[in-house]
Amino acid sequence: MTAPYACQPQDSRGRRWPERMSTFRSPWQRDRDRIIHSSAFRRLKHKTQVFVEHEGDYYRTRLTHTIEVAQVARTIAGALGLNTDLAETVALAHDLGHPPFGHTGEDALAALMAPYGGFDHNAQALRIVTRLERHYADFDGLNLTWESLEGIAKHNGPVTGDLPYALAEVDAEWDLELHTNASAEAQVAAVADDVAYNHHDLHDGLRAGLFTEADLAALPVIGEAFAAVDALHPGLAPMRRRHEALRRVFGIMVEDVIAVAQNRLASLQPQDAQDIRDMEGPIIRFSKPLYQNLKAIKLFLFQRMYRAPSVVVERRRVTEMLEGLFPLFLADPSKMPPTWFEAAEAAGDETARARVVLDYVAGMTDRFAIQEAQRLLG
Prior knowledge:
Layout: H1 27-36, H2 39-43, H3 62-79, H4 84-93, H5 102-112, H6 121-132, H7 146-154, H8 165-173, H9 184-207, H10 213-216, H11 222-232, H12 238-268, H13 273-278, H14 288-306, H15 309-331, H16 338-346, H17 350-362, H18 366-377
């Protein structure tokens, strides 16, 4: 049984293009399945978080990260009486718009697209699920429900001010009420994203040798987790010790989110899903003490991992690849595959053409972008 403030399948606002209801799947189960079967979802296998795809088989890719986020989202949503299918759907879709080379690729494309309306991976995810996936006979995109689109658009909070063009286009066709909070399920997906990357970036940074367990000892939460493992299992093998400590950190984050949400829900007494949307601020969040501790951990990761010298060198290299490929395709669209060339030729002006090129480049995997850079740029 879901709580009254959960999104209820029978109350869904439906799809942009009406379809017959499934006899055995809820609307959000269908959305989830369409996302999993999409081309963009499959490409996440060869898109990376921090390390470039060729650097090792152990590091997280966008796909493994997405699966971890979905697992956390289902756990938290289930504990709070929310709709686990919707939470999972938003979690599975949240990174579909990421370009190759992680946040480095996003930074590079945002700079290249600045004259043409900018680039934002959340907006690009919406563009993918409403326009760029072209497999169905009756519509472009995946024809997801309003609630899933809303969750993709604003799982990180209300969206105000100048909208990215990809988001503005979707919102103009179907009002996503961007000024309000997202559903509690979408908020869960956003927090699950934080939980997952805080956890796995520590794992990946240790495995890459960018820092050691001793470096983590002084950090809040993590230091205590290692101390607890040492007290329970003295002399534990290093890899087991690491895993045991970091799984405790993972559990602390999840339990904190659930406890805070339970307290806020009991205090505020929302009566339905719309009450959640109309609140001031999110209902799903970390406690203030843990939030401050996580800020310290993120600062450590920023200094020791995201801006580590070896990572900075790789960031520069892949940025140069995108800075070479994008203007090349913009100047000569014939270097793209025929369908993309035709779309670029049919574009009305340079901005429209740049957006076609952006869709093509942003859809590349790390591996394919490297291959194309070698082939076309040398």
